[in-house]
Amino acid sequence: MNRQSLKQTTVPDAPGVYSFIGPHKEILYIGRATSLRSRVRSYFAPDITEKRGLAIAKMVEEAKVVEWEKTDSVLESLILEANL
Predict the structure, then answer these.
(1) Which residues of 49-80 are buried (b: 16+ CB within 10 A; e: fewer)?
(2) d(CA 2, CA 41)
(3) pTM of the complete model
(4) pLDDT tens for residues 4-45?
(5) At a CB cut-off of 8 Å and minimum separation 6, what does 48 contact?
(6) For position 10, what pLDDT does the model report?
(7) Euclidean distance between CA atoms 71 and 14, whole angstroms
(8) Residue 29: what pLDDT?
(9) Which residue among 15, 22, 41, 55 is the one 20 to 30 A from 62 at the CA level?
(10) Lowest mean pLDDT: which of 32-36, 49-53, 76-80?
(11) Residue 12 DSSP symbol
């Protein structure tokens, strides 16, 4: 997934869990956020390598899809992340 395809996607401004999915439909990363929109967009910033490191930048580059599941609260997102 790239910055352009993210712009065409409506990520909710709500708590939840997100996953970066690789080319073979494998889960590369699972995280949680109080604002899915802000967190997911932060991975596509031009200075991602400086802010998050080379490993995260490579993971974002390799990912083909970003999936998310909105929750009703931050506590629910914490529980969902732990279960995933």
Answers:
(1) eeeeeeeebebbeebeebebbebeeeebbeeb
(2) 10
(3) 0.87
(4) 666 667 899 999 999 999 999 999 999 999 999 999 999 998
(5) 56, 57, 60
(6) 87
(7) 7
(8) 96
(9) 15
(10) 49-53
(11) -
Q: Which residues are registered as beta bridge partners of 27?
A: 21
State the DSSP code for 8. T
Q: Whole-angstrom Cα distance, residue 20 to residue 55? A: 13
DSSP states of 19-78 as a string? EEE-TTS-EEEEEEES-HHHHHHHTTSTTHHHHH-HHHHHHHHH-SEEEEEE-SSHHHHH
Structure-token pair, residue 22: 């690789």
Q: How far is the CA of 6 from the CAs of 1, 57, 59, in angstroms?
A: 7, 16, 16
Q: What's the average model confidence in pLDDT over 54-76?
A: 94
